[in-house]
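Key result, reporting period 2: structure in, sequence out.
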């Protein structure tokens, strides 16, 4: 079976019921906002940024029997630290004793980082995003514990809710233009994209939505290709949760692309990994389809 990573941006899914107690919390002193299911506990601690260095960090967390939601903001202090070294050390620490199932580029507006799915030894699964931004490391984790009460959708919803405030970036203007160009191309409605094309340039909100969906769809395909059923289910749940814009609806809801994506969702809901992989392999190749090596 040949599987393909289709870097596509927007399509429509059924949105799950919205949890009643989730609300957004804003922390302007640290330039971010995020959605928690309850008032978070806030503490100051130490964070290991290299093997021999620890820095002050602020942790915002909510713990449940079946899940944990946590944002860590570590003060890097040393502007000379390389972003790659900081992120790689964080990944190494997070995955110790476990296995990284997904590790792909991630972006929130103009802030670039990494998106991960980690399977821990005890069966817990963590959705993670990491960003080296404005002299700080931002580490957001949504962890679903193996209690029998599945919280994977909540975990990835939490990670997807992170937004940076203040309008800054950790990339050059050229990097940002290139990333936006890639998102525009992926969501332009070309052959195989399965989305409606308006002919007008997207505004920043629509473009941001496209890019977030593009990244999450890449995570879905990566999880399917690696045989990670819970990771694929989380990614599909996240795609369902962030949909809603008219830009995300299929140009042809009865076309082969729409049908294949629907089949992926049906298979994942029933726990049929092989069926989801088979549905993925049937997706049209169109513009923006990249063969996975």
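The corresponding designed sequence is given below.
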């Amino acid at each position: 079976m040949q599987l393909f990573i289709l870097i596509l941006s927007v399509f429509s899914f059924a949105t799950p019921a919205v949890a009643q107690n989730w609300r957004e919390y804003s922390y302007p002193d640290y330039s971010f906002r995020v959605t928690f299911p309850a008032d978070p506990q806030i503490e100051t601690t130490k964070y290991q940024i290299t093997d021999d260095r620890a820095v002050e960090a602020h942790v915002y967390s909510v713990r449940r029997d079946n899940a944990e939601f946590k944002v860590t903001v570590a003060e890097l202090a040393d502007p000379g630290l390389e972003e790659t070294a900081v992120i790689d050390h964080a990944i190494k620490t997070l995955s110790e004793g476990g296995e990284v199932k997904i590790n792909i580029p991630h972006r929130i507006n103009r802030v670039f980082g990494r998106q991960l799915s980690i399977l821990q030894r005890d069966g817990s699964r963590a959705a993670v995003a990491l960003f080296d931004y404005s002299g700080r490391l931002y580490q957001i984790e949504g962890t679903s514990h193996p209690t029998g009460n599945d919280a994977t959708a909540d975990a990835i919803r939490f990670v997807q809710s992170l937004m940076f405030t203040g309008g800054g970036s950790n990339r050059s203007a050229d990097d940002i233009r290139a990333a936006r160009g890639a998102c525009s191309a992926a969501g332009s409605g070309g052959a195989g994209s399965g989305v409606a094309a308006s002919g007008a340039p997207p505004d920043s909100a629509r473009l941001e939505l496209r890019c977030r969906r593009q990244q999450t769809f890449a995570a879905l395909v990566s999880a399917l290709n690696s045989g990670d059923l819970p990771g694929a289910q989380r990614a599909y749940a996240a795609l369902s949760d962030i949909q809603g814009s008219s830009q995300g609806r299929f140009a042809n809801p009865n076309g082969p692309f729409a049908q294949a994506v629907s089949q992926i969702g049906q298979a994942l809901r029933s726990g049929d990994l092989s069926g989801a992989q088979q549905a993925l392999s049937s997706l049209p190749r169109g513009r923006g389809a990249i063969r996975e090596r």
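Residues 4-14+171-291 form one domain. The chain has two domains: 4-14+171-291, 25-164. This case is discussed further under Risks and Mitigation.
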